[in-house]
Amino acid sequence: MMAQADPAPTMGSSKWLCGPGWQPAELPAIGQSDVTPLLPDCDLWDCWPLQHEDGSTVEIDGVQYWFFLSSPRLPDPGQRHHHARVSYIPTS
Question: What one GO molecular function would you report for this record (predicted)?
Answer without folding.
Answer: hydrolase activity
